[in-house]
Write a structure and sequence with these properties.
By secondary structure, the protein is mostly beta strands. It has a single domain, classed as Methylamine Dehydrogenase, Chain H (7 Propeller), CATH 2.130.10.10. It is 2% helix and 50% strand.
Length: 296
Amino acid sequence: MCISNARRLATCIALVISFAQTASAAEILIADAKSQPESMTVAPGGILIVGSASTPFVYKVRPGSSTAEKFIDASAEGPGTFFFGMLADASTNTLWACQLTPVPDITPVKRHTALRSFDLTTGAPKIRWNLPGDNNTCNDIAIGPDKALYITDTANGKIYRLPAGASTAELYLEHRTLMGIDGITFLNGTLYINNVFFNKLYCIPVDAAGKPGQPDDIWMDQLVKGPDGMRAANGKLFVAENASGKISVLTINGDKASVTVLKEGLKTPTAVEPAGDTLWFTERATGKVMSIPMPK
């Protein structure tokens, strides 16, 4: 099992969800209705960094502004280039991103994807690591307690690990249940991933030597349909359900999860990002980034 004794004790405490009164809702159009903001992150100072799944651009939205500025331009990477996962690492002033470029003149579509890093202030490029294989999907990114970066490859059912300070990632885990892996995050030191194909949630057990084991299934008490971007905060998991148009919060108790819907009626939400008293999320089908008060 993935759950520590301390966490078992902590999850016995009843937690009541209520909305903070200090945050207000926001709705920001990223470029236009066709920009398809797939993933987002929040940089220091409350700056929103938003990737586009329909263009080769990453956008920046400054606090208090409703206008998105172009921050990174990857149009030189080839036709059809776009972005998935976004993650700001304030400790190294780095923006991590998943960049995807279709392979031309191939049916069915194949993509070459890369883990990219950029200066979080200027957008200047830093590291580039190309995922192995002829077809791959760098989808989402998380930083572990060991300061390493963990990267999901949806198309190949793999998790890669980039050690802190390294420029080349290594295969961390490959397993048949990971085909369709999407969101990834750490909660109380435990690695959680979801599967967008099969509507599943797993935790990854790790032995004393740091070797990952077979994913453990977390049973959710209601259907989470199309789990996509996922982040942890306040002892809970927040997830965007792209197929049901919902933002939900999951309270983990051993190998079970209690699901509470925070927002519904959305059009293809694909990312969620807790930041202080605000919970941000993308609505890919309308080109918008939105927020609600962070539940407590």
